[in-house]
Design brief:
- The longest helix is centred in the first third of the chain and has 17 residues.
- The protein is globular, with a radius of gyration of 16 Å.
- The protein has one domain: Aminopeptidase, CATH 3.40.630.30.
- It contains 5 helices and 8 strands, in the order ββαααβββαβαββ.
- The two termini are 20 Å apart.
- An 8-stranded mixed sheet has the order 1-2-3-4-5-6-8-7, with helices on both faces.
- Helix 1 packs across helix 3.
- Helix content is 31%, strand content 37%.
- The protein is an alpha+beta fold.
- A hairpin with a 2-residue loop joins strand 7 and strand 8.
- Its EC number is 2.3.1.267.
- It is an enzyme of class 2 (transferase).
- Belongs to the acetyltransferase family. RimJ subfamily.
- It holds the Pfam family Acetyltransf_3.
């Protein structure tokens, strides 16, 4: 899996996160702070600074080097307009990972999320040899549920108090996609 940029949808491209993306990640999170707040954990103020993003990017790249995560950024020119991650990659008989993603508020409704998820499915199957992907959405996140279903994910149940999102433990709908 290289760091080369691949066309995704319109002018948006996808590539592996780089150490040099710190300032662009900071700008993306600042621009999308309110948009992402209902869907993400509470963030300390430091998260929205260059230093905070430097720690986040370094952590993501360490996990990538270790083989447990694959962090991609969605870009439009020099701007980062989304993030997608395969996390918790497990080898052996499980061959599975979790999929998470977000798309910039100004890029919603353009098919970018769908294209990114389709890209991740292909990379998980063809490049990583994974058997299964799992994703979870808040119960009221109809947009992400639609994207996952369009990409062939099946709903497999509800996980009570699954993740601490927006300051509280929230139920999530679990989805999976068997890749082969």
């Amino acid at each position: 899996m290289t760091g080369n940029s691949t066309p995704l949808a319109g002018s948006v491209r996808i590539r592996i996160l780089r150490a040099s993306d710190v300032e662009a990640m900071c700008a993306a999170y600042l621009r999308n702070r309110e948009h992402l707040a209902p869907w993400e954990p509470l963030r300390a103020e430091e998260f929205f600074t260059v230093d905070g993003q430097m720690m986040s990017v370094q952590s993501k790249l360490s996990l990538f080097i270790a083989g447990s995560d694959v962090p991609w950024v969605l870009t439009d020119g020099e701007a980062i307009v989304g993030l997608m991650t395969l996390s918790g990659i497990v080898r052996g008989p499980f061959l599975s990972a979790h999929l998470g993603y977000w798309v910039d508020k100004d890029y919603n409704g353009r098919g970018i999320g769908s294209a990114a998820v389709a890209f991740a499915v292909g990379a998980a199957r063809d490049d990583l040899g994974l058997h299964r992907l799992q994703a979870a959405t808040l119960q009221h996140n109809a947009a992400s549920q639609k994207i996952l279903k369009r990409a062939g994910f099946a709903e497999i149940g509800v996980a009570p108090a699954y993740l601490n999102i927006a300051g509280g433990w929230q139920d999530h709908i679990l989805f999976q996609r068997i890749l082969y």
